[in-house]
Design goal:
The complex is a heterodimer of chains A (about 240) and B (about 750).
Chain A lengths: L19 E6 L8 H9 L6 H6 L7 E4 L2 E2 L6 E2 L3 E4 L19 E2 L4 E2 L11 H5 L6 E2 L26 E2 L5 H13 L12 H5 L5 E5 L6 H9 L2 E2 L11 E4 L3
Chain B lengths: L6 H18 L27 E6 L8 E7 L2 E7 L12 H4 L2 H4 L9 E2 L27 H13 L6 E5 L5 H13 L5 E2 L2 H5 L2 H12 L5 E3 L6 E5 L10 H12 L8 E5 L5 H4 L3 E3 L6 H16 L5 H4 L3 H8 L3 H12 L4 E5 L9 H14 L9 E3 L15 H12 L5 E5 L3 H4 L6 H4 L5 E4 L6 H4 L3 E2 L10 E4 L8 E5 L12 H12 L1 H6 L5 H9 L15 H11 L1 E3 L31 E7 L11 H4 L8 E2 L4 E3 L1 H6 L6 E6 L4 E8 L7 E6 L36 E11 L3 E2 L3 H5 L8
Parallel strand pairs in B: 5-6, 5-13, 8-9, 8-11, 9-10, 13-14, 14-15, 19-24, 21-23
Antiparallel strand pairs in B: 1-2, 2-3, 4-15, 7-12, 16-17, 17-18, 19-25, 20-26, 21-24, 22-23, 22-25
The chains are: A alpha+beta (about 240), B alpha/beta (about 750).
């Protein structure tokens, strides 16, 4: 039986302001992959080798998408599009997890991935419209002495576990702990995610979207033409893109 | 031992640890005492969970960006940019990020080795993910190694001793230069594949011809409104990519000013050209005439008499030869002429052709029409580094060729190699490999078991960059004059030794003029002797009342730089009155395709042994872990080729087999192959992966002595086999493979 979908009756998410958010200026992004490398180094991402990466099993929490428009000689590369977990306010990955491994943090307004709850059903990845979740199909080894560089603040994942961008939650918590111990609030720009910190074009900016004075909020206002990807699905993403050009 | 330690002993040891490492962060002259502390003897200030940060310099390329390394309990954990360093202002590229995978690479040279040429340096039978591996064992101690170097210095005539070094103008280069000046050994030759692919020698030679001054031009992309780049891949690996990327970001910034425009002229769309507003796929070899034609049209639009430089060019002729329509040339000329900040940049493959020098001069002359010299958004000469009196460019390929000829003629009896891998980086056609057979003794200071170490008689491994002292002069990219400083962020992981220390000790052993040339106790003392004179210079980022404090700051901030503008303004008085050549490039070889080798933006010349760099998708093709040849889909169809089909590519210099990637943004008469893979050694992640396009490059030079690497024509033949490429993009994506939409 065909289901008739009336757009007017689709219940969209309510007006929503998240907490942590990101703006990405695609006009500035050069596709240099510095963010991808920085993310891998910060978050203990495994490399999977040539064969598995050919099957699409590579562990990129952030990737740079580029598409082609037209054909030679009028061919154009679309603006590079860094794609990472959009930390949706109404995330489609969350309700499908039978193990409550992908849950919403009320405190941080982020999508969490609780590795030791994950049983590897991969429902969340199937349901993610942004395709930003990576699954550990194997125990990818790091030969000695590579493990020396592992970040002690980030869990190392094993086979059968889903993982994804966390907005560098370890950095968020570190900054919050520091601010708390000094009896103050976290200052805008005091810390940032690994990808934003590395980006040589300063295309990525991270901060509090619920604070109108933060740099992310200001950039979103000044640009005015920011878009959220697949917003029509009602996922309420916390990442805003500037197409520019 | 640990179970015999009393608590009191433990506290004492911890105290010693605290002293040594506190010094490392920059408190005094004894700072050469660097120890990696085991957990039992953790320095007092090291709280669990709290990190220590050290400023140092990135050694992944010769740009000299400042880094801050996060360490914890003696391990390096993460690379960040040094926000104080005016070159990169806290930013890094992907290669800088992955530098830790070099430090902790499973395949490093672990100690001094007496080696039989060609003998394997590690076991490759193992699975790349397996822990079981066997690097070649060290079979001598450092005392014997130092004696070997001393004997090599003493027992050969000075003029028969030669040093081949990396591109970076660093402290070791200064040390060897001092040694050469004092003893008569050959001056060190600096070379790198990157300097060849960015055509650095051609750029500096062209500016010398036009402006009468040696130096490396600096292009203020950030201050410009319209940027025309002829082949300069400044967002990838060219000269100083992080600094140029910052400039690009400023060009694009549209909140406080008008968004700047960018046009790239090249036959294959590089990832730099992918960011351009207009990509001009001109016929290879016609860059000079296009630049001159635009110059002529700009003069006409601006209503100035057409200067001599552009008087001989016919725009219509240039349009028909280059394949860019006359209307388009007019449109571009208007864009350039009517802008308040127009800038033209020559570089890369456009200069790596037989007429490369003419291309560079023609493009630089475009800047003279709009007279942007010394203005925001214009052309400058790069600031010289603080302890530098003149520009010291790396050797051109021709100079390396002359060096190889000396080797062939038996004029070199002992060759020291540091920081460069000529067996991989030099085209086979330069015959470096064969020439080494005439050298009785080759001593490599390689950190990694690379191809050159494989052909050496001795390997005396230097520390990894993050375990080393040093400094690096910033050749270009910053407004002010910058000396990036390096210090060990962790203690050496293996039994390696700083090459400077080895040379100083060996010079002392060799005695006589060698000992007199390097009268230092160790590397740090040498370093201090070079850096401390800066204490008297004005306009420093910091100053200090005494030498010890100065050196402590030098370590703490990661170098020393001036706060003033150190760029100089090129003398452009005579540029437009010269006659400039518009001749087309000549191409070597028989084939029907133009061949463009380009540097992989993620791997570059030395990234292939870092697994995460291998797994970074190429920015344009998204291919990982391998080499491909880019071919226009129309051409591929004509040749009956699909993605992943193996083809053999034949040039006058060699043959390669490589899988096809149908690339929509390349001229149908051009093919391109990335440089970075094709190692026959260099560790498990690099070896036996892809091909090296330098194998196809013949021995043809341009007038500036750079290799005409993009001046080749090649033939393509289908082999009938497939080699599937790993790529991030879906193969369904571009051509509808598997969707029934396939053409």
């Amino acid at each position: 039986m065909a289901i008739e979908l009336k757009v007017s009756e689709v219940k969209m998410g309510e007006a929503y302001v998240g907490k942590w958010g990101m703006v990405i200026d695609q006009d500035m992004c050069t596709g240099c992959q510095a963010c991808v490398a920085a993310c891998a180094m910060e978050n203990n991402l495994s490399f999977v080798g040539e064969t598995d990466s050919g099957y699409g099993r590579s562990m990129h929490w952030i990737r740079i998408e580029r598409f082609w428009e037209g054909s030679y000689p009028e061919v154009k590369m679309t603006p590079n599009q860094p794609m990472l977990c959009q930390q949706c306010g109404a995330a489609t990955c969350e309700p499908v997890c039978p193990a409550f491994a992908t849950v919403h943090s009320q405190a941080e307004q982020l999508n969490l991935q609780v590795y030791n709850r994950c049983v590897g059903t991969r429902y969340c990845a199937n349901n993610c419209p942004y395709q930003v979740r990576s699954f550990n199909w194997r125990d990818y080894k790091r030969p000695e002495p590579l493990p020396n560089q592992l970040n002690p603040d980030v869990t190392v994942r094993r086979r059968g576990v889903m993982e994804k961008c966390t907005f560098c939650i370890q950095r968020i918590h570190k900054a919050q702990d520091k601010a708390k111990s000094e009896g103050r609030e976290v200052v805008d720009g005091e810390f940032t995610t690994a990808c934003a910190q590395a980006c040589p074009a300063s295309a990525i900016t991270f901060g509090r979207v619920d604070n109108p004075d933060s740099l992310v909020s200001q950039l979103a206002r000044v640009h005015g033409h920011g878009v959220k990807h697949l917003e029509e699905l009602g996922t309420l993403p916390n990442v805003t893109y500037f197409k520019g050009g | 031992m640990s179970d015999k330690l009393s608590r009191r002993d433990f506290l004492k040891l911890a105290g010693v640890g605290a002293v040594t490492t506190a010094i490392l962060t920059g408190c005094g002259p004894a700072s050469r005492l660097v120890k990696r502390e085991p957990y039992l003897q953790m320095p007092e200030y090291t709280y669990n969970g709290l990190s220590t940060y050290y400023a140092t310099t990135c050694r992944e390329c010769a740009a000299g960006c400042g880094l801050i390394i996060r360490t914890s309990q003696g391990r390096a954990l993460k690379t960040e940019g040094n926000a104080n360093n005016p070159l990169n202002l806290g930013k890094t590229c992907a290669r800088g990020q992955a530098t830790l995978q070099g430090l902790y690479n499973p395949n490093r040279v672990r100690g001094p080795i007496k080696h039989t040429r060609g003998e394997r340096l590690y076991d490759t039978a193992t699975d790349p993910f397996n822990d079981d591996f066997a690097d070649a064992k060290s079979n001598m101690d450092w005392a014997a190694a130092t004696q070997t170097v001393a004997d090599a210095l003493k027992n050969n005539k000075p003029e028969e001793i030669a040093f081949l070094m990396g591109m970076a103008p660093d402290h070791l280069f200064d040390l060897v230069t001092d040694l050469a000046n004092a003893t008569g050994i050959q001056s060190p030759v600096r070379f790198g594949a990157l300097s060849m692919f960015e055509s650095r020698a051609t750029l500096s030679k062209a500016s010398e011809n036009l402006f009468g001054q040696t130096g490396l031009p600096l292009f203020d992309v950030g201050g410009a409104q319209v940027v025309f780049s002829f082949g300069a891949n400044f967002l990838e690996t060219w000269l100083s990519p992080v600094s140029y990327t910052r400039g690009f970001s400023a060009l694009r910034e549209a909140q406080t000013k008008q968004r700047g425009k960018f046009v790239q002229f090249e036959s294959r769309m590089s990832s730099t050209a992918g960011k351009a507003d207009e990509w001009m796929p001109l016929r290879p070899g016609t860059e000079a005439m296009v630049a001159l034609a635009i110059g002529r049209l700009v003069s006409e639009i601006r209503g100035i008499p057409v200067p001599r430089a552009f008087s001989d060019i016919d725009p219509l002729d240039a349009a028909s030869k280059s394949g860019i329509k006359l209307e388009m040339l007019n449109h571009l000329a208007e864009m350039f002429a009517n802008s308040t900040g127009a800038l033209a940049i020559p570089g890369g493959a456009a200069l790596g052709q037989s007429n490369g020098l003419a291309v560079a001069e023609a493009v630089l002359a475009l800047n003279a029409v709009v007279n942007n010299f010394g203005k925001p958004g214009g052309v400058f000469f790069s600031a010289l580094a603080p302890n530098q009196t003149e520009y010291q460019g790396p050797a051109s390929a021709k100079e390396v060729g002359e060096f190889v000829q000396k080797m062939i003629d038996g004029k070199i009896k002992v060759l020291f190699v540091h920081g460069v891998n000529p067996f991989f980086e030099l085209p086979i056609s330069l015959q470096f490999g064969g020439a080494t057979k005439n050298i009785p003794q080759i001593i490599s200071f390689a950190t990694f078991p690379d191809e050159t170490a494989l052909e050496a008689d001795y390997i005396f491994p230097d520390h990894h960059g993050l375990e080393s002292w040093g400094y690096q002069r910033v050749a270009t990219g910053s407004v002010g004059s910058v000396l990036s400083g390096a210090q060990p962020v962790v203690s050496p992981f293996y039994d390696t030794r700083a090459t400077a220390d080895v040379l100083i000790a060996a010079a002392q052993l060799a005695g006589g003029k060698f000992a007199a040339a390097l009268p230092f106790k160790d590397e740090v003392e040498f370093l201090h002797s070079k850096v401390t004179p800066l204490i008297n210079e004005a306009d420093g980022f910091f100053s200090a009342p005494d030498v010890n404090t100065f050196m402590a700051y030098f370590q703490q901030f990661g170098g020393w730089w001036k706060t003033t503008d150190g760029r100089s303004i090129p003398n452009s008085a005579d540029v437009l009155n010269r006659s400039l050549s518009s001749a087309e490039a000549e191409f070597a070889g028989e084939g029907e395709f133009f061949f463009v080798p380009f540097v992989s933006p993620t791997l570059a010349e030395a990234g292939a042994n870092k697994p995460w760099l291998q797994e970074l998708p190429d920015p344009t093709t998204t291919v990982m872990w391998n080499t491909w040849v880019e071919m226009n889909p129309v051409t591929a169809e004509e040749l009956g080729l699909e993605d992943d089909d193996l083809v053999s590519i034949t040039s006058e210099a060699g043959v390669l087999e490589v899988p096809v990637y149908r690339y929509p943004a390349i001229r149908p008469d051009t093919i391109a192959i990335p440089f970075g893979q094709g190692h026959t050694a260099y560790g498990r992640y690099a070896e036996k992966r892809g091909v090296n396009p330098t194998d196809l490059i013949g021995q043809n030079f341009n007038e500036a002595g750079d290799l005409a690497f993009a001046g080749m024509k090649v033939k393509i033949k289908k082999i009938g086999k497939k080699k599937p490429l790993s790529r991030l993009e879906s193969i369904m994506g571009v051509y509808g493979v598997g969707l029934g939409e396939e053409k």
